């Protein structure tokens, strides 16, 4: 199957309809999607709305200059880089230097040759492609830094970042929020009896079951080892108890075929939170949920204990 060429969004800024039409003719039929502006204000509005890959702007315009447009583009905070080509009738080196210092990447002297324009835009395309590649790689690294490699769930860093926002929202709007710690029972015995590969299968299965049972508005992740964490909002203490018990029963009903044997694994949970959402300290919530987890362990494992904090 043939892959479609990537379109490059180009904003052309010139108060001359003749030059706008000329540039349109030069770039027609290529891998370009063109938009137009007659002045700096219109161009800046279009830039903010559409984030073009390349801006080709005249220097002299009726409202504010292409030089100022370059400065405003560079002063703005955008996630993607825009390549700027400044068109000028000024051939003096001082003018060119001013343009580059203002944030232009390249310049064209009017009247320009069509092949020269295409060549300079080609340079811009290569720079844009490099920036996009770096952005993708950076995003992938950032995602990897927030993801547990074994289970694919968010790790503690991602959980803390997400929960801090939820805590602020719960405190401001007064909705219930709960932190749930889950721990696999006798997990060391699985590793000792059947090997670490079997242990990894159990961990991934627990993670998958947990993820399927978690609403889009909530979050689940792995803290490390056989310890997992959920953050559940907008449910009462009674309902969060029921929801976690339902998940506990679903997991304990599963069977793992290890070395010709059918093995069941259970999990224990501790919950801490508030019906009113007046909570601010994530670490304190985790510590309280951990207390409830060990209380449940002492009660015989494969059960749930809830601490409802004053709010």
Keywords:
311 residues; alpha/beta; Rossmann fold; Alpha-Beta Plaits; 2 domains; 22% strand; elongated
Describe the structure.
With about 300 residues, this protein is of the alpha/beta class. It folds into 2 domains: about 10-145, Response regulator (Rossmann fold); about 155-310, Reverse transcriptase/Diguanylate cyclase domain (Alpha-Beta Plaits, 2-Layer Sandwich). Helices cover about 50% and strands about 20% of the residues. A 5-stranded parallel β-sheet has the order 2-1-3-4-5, sandwiched between helices. The chain has a 5-stranded mixed β-sheet with strand order 7-8-6-11-12, sandwiched between helices. It has a two-stranded antiparallel sheet with strand order 9-10. α10 links the parallel β11 (about 265-275) and β12. α7 packs across α8 (about 195-215). The longest helix is centred in the middle third of the chain and has 32 residues, at about 115-145. It is elongated. The termini are far apart. The model has no long low-confidence stretch (mean pLDDT about 90).
Topology, pairings included?
Layout (H helix, E strand, L loop, with lengths): L7 E6 L3 H11 L4 E6 L2 H11 L3 E5 L7 H10 L7 E6 L4 H10 L3 E4 L4 H32 L10 H18 L3 E8 L2 H8 L1 H18 L5 E6 L2 E7 L3 H16 L3 E3 L2 E3 L3 E8 L7 H17 L5 E5 L3
Parallel strand pairs: 1-2, 1-3, 3-4, 4-5, 11-12
Antiparallel strand pairs: 6-8, 6-11, 7-8, 9-10
The poorly predicted ranges are none
Report Rg: 29 Å
Named CATH architecture of the largest domain: 2-Layer Sandwich
SS class: alpha/beta
Mean pLDDT: 90
Query: Helices and strands, in N-to-C order?
Result: EHEHEHEHEHHEHHEEHEEEHE
Please name the CATH topology of the largest domain: Alpha-Beta Plaits
Classify the beta-strand content into a percent band.
15-25%
- Strand runs, count: 12
**What number of domains?**
2
Write out the CATH superfamily name of the largest domain.
Reverse transcriptase/Diguanylate cyclase domain
What is the tally of helical segments?
10
- The geometry reads as elongated
Q: For this structure, what is the CATH class of the largest domain?
A: Alpha Beta
How is the biggest beta sheet arranged?
5 strands, parallel
Order of strands, widest sheet: 2-1-3-4-5
> What's the N-to-C terminus distance?
59 Å
């Amino acid at each position: 199957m043939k892959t479609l060429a990537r379109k490059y969004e180009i904003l052309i800024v010139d108060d001359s309809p003749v030059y706008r039409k000329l540039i349109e003719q030069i770039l027609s039929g290529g891998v370009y999607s063109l938009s137009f502006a007659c002045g700096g204000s219109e161009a800046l509005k279009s830039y903010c709305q559409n984030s073009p890959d390349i801006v080709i702007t005249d220097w002299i315009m009726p409202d504010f200059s292409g030089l100022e447009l370059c400065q405003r583009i560079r002063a703005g905070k955008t996630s993607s880089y825009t390549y700027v080509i400044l068109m000028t009738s000024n051939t003096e080196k001082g003018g060119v230097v001013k343009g580059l210092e203002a944030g232009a990447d390249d310049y064209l002297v009017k009247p320009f040759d069509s092949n020269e324009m295409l060549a300079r835009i080609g340079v811009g395309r290569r720079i844009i492609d490099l920036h996009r590649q770096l952005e993708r790689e950076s995003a992938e690294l950032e995602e990897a830094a927030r993801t547990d490699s074994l289970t694919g769930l968010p790790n503690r860093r991602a959980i803390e970042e997400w929960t801090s926002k939820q805590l602020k929202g719960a405190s401001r709007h007064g909705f219930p929020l709960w932190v749930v710690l889950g721990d696999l029972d006798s997990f060391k015995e699985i590793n000792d009896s059947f090997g670490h590969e079997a242990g990894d299968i159990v961990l991934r299965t627990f993670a998958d079951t947990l993820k399927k049972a978690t609403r889009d508005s909530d979050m689940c992740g792995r803290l490390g080892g056989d310890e997992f964490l959920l953050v559940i909002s907008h449910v009462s203490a009674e309902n969060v108890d029921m929801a976690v018990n339902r998940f506990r029963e679903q997991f304990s009903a599963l069977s793992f075929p290890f070395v010709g044997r059918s093995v069941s694994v259970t999990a224990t949970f501790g919950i801490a939170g508030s019906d009113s959402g007046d909570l601010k300290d994530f670490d304190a919530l985790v510590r309280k949920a951990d207390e409830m987890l060990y209380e449940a362990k002492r009660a015989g494992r494969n059960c749930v204990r809830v601490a409802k904090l004053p709010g």
